[in-house]
Write a structure and sequence with these properties.
Jelly Rolls, Immunoglobulin-like, five-stranded antiparallel β-sheet
Amino acid sequence: MIKLFDKNRRYKILAFSLLIFCVHYAIAAQDTVKVIFFQDSNIQQFRGVEWHRIQKDFPAGSYEKAILKIDLGCATYGCCAWDYTYRGFFSKKISDSSYKDIEVARLITPYSSLMRKGRHGYDSTWVHPYFYDVTDYLPLLKGDSIFYSAYTGGWDDKGKFGFKHTVTLYLIKGDTLRNPVNVLPAFQDNYRYQDSIQIDSMIKPFRFKLRPGENYAKLRTIITGHDQEGEFSPINFHVRLNGKPIYQKRLWKTDCDQNPIQPQSGTWIFPRTNWCPGEKVNEIEVHLADLKLESDNEIEIYFGKIETESKEIHAIYSIESHVITYRYKDSFDLALVDIVSPSRNPNYRMHNPSCSRIRFLIKNEGSQKVNTFDVKAGYKNGIGIVYRVFLDLMPQEVKTYELNFDEHGDTFVELELMKRPLNVNFKNDFIKAEILQTPKLQSREIILEIYTTNDSSNNWLVIRSGNRDTILKKVYFNNNTTYRDTIQLAPNCCYHLELFDYDKNYQCGDGLSFWYSSRVMKKTSGIFKIYDAKSGKILKVFNPDFGGKINYEFRIE
């Protein structure tokens, strides 16, 4: 065990965390400026497509980091029942009727009639935060004022409902050495798919030349698939630089059934083309190596064949893609992006509370591949453990990593990267998160009771100790049957329970109860509870509408 953190450095570094709580601490510091664009402003979905534009004074200064926070909630007249696209832009006014819009944030609204009806723990006061690192777009934030624009669209056949948004930009003061210097719009359009040859012929190559002094660039892309096959069929996305293939990704999100906003009133569990209802759309960042410094560079994006058996294809791909250029880029620069668990951040609801591990996101911000790094992990008492991590991380790549670490009832968790000779940028080496406390069960002997559906083979249960030893593994074979398993657990220990569900017909889980499964597939509903074995008292009842997994960590006292 070693002493972990230098308190004198904490003040400055805290401003670089993306967590809601760390943003709060940065605001408290004097090196952060806040610009509020919209405050609880209604988005009237029932009117169809709308633009919401606002101009705000831009405070002069040098900024090394920018975080955009969008708080989405129910409109004053009720929440919309449908999943619609929300797009946020930094805009430049060209004339009274025209703007140059650069999209910096995209999210898909959740199916929110449960919020309107006050069901499953929701009500009309529901709000969810979305965070975007928009440091890449600091070159656009020049002059005395800036425009923020929001594009929303859709309709609600149940009446006049919608959402409201609060949009806040956090600007963190500092040097601009590592900041981007130019934003080049490359691909900005909705492309309709007929076949792979046709759509690729529609998307023309983008050519650009680095300006004097610029020596590094990346491609930053937001892409979502829409219409029937565009939404519900996978497709491959490719990038080519100067004729050479450099990137490929299958656009298919299979974890919508583990959505942090759950349950929802619609088909929230089903996989989709690079998005899920109620979630932020993550950017695709591609490292542009081997750039020509004194002549034109050419970027091409193209698709493979859509993976569908439908003879008539309805697919549209909404693409916003920019080339971001730099004058300076560290060869080695790891960045701690976020703490997934333990954390109170509602975007990581499916991973919390957690008493047995630290899960975090780490990004390679440098221009060279990273194979290993050292990280210190600790809590509020200032004591920490150093871990050696082996992880192949390409430039611009983000990965999730887990460390075994006992929470011990603390209120904060902190991570810090150890210094290496090549790592000269220390400002993204520290993150901190407030902990959601783990439930404590006052029983050493518990009963796990599950009443299965008429499709029980989809379910299995695993309980592990804090050091990941398997305590119980159970597969359920009998339909419409009550199973009761009694287990003995050691006191003062952490345990991790997971109940899984997977339906191969859906390619996702539908929990023990889901409206579509009941109505269309005629599935019955199940129940899952935890009892105290001695008293018979119910310790926990789980919502059966949980999608792909129940993740529950607890302590025995």
